[in-house]
Amino acid sequence: MKISQLESDLGYKIITKDFEDREADSGYTSDLLSDVMGNAPADSVFITIQAHKNTIAVATLAGVSAIVICGNRQIPEDMIQAAKEEEIAIFQTQDNQFTASCKIGQLLA
Fold it and tell me: Closest Cα partner for 67 from 78, 109, 75?
């Protein structure tokens, strides 16, 4: 699945426009950043409610393709700026983590 499908197929709002439209071959849902660092597969979609700058650092270390911020949480400007610098796509949705995980799982199937 191309990560742009999160917008085109699921209607998720893209927050960062400058990103490489990479392939994602799995997803990982967690709100515990240390868990993500240790367990998220590279090239996955990271699904979370953690909307802060540290999330970008963790995503970079894990090598994830995109971040989906659930619950329509506000995304601070310093997080957006860090995502631009690291070329990580951020999407925003009103879906909760369970619903987003199910929808993304269907796209990956």
Answer: 75
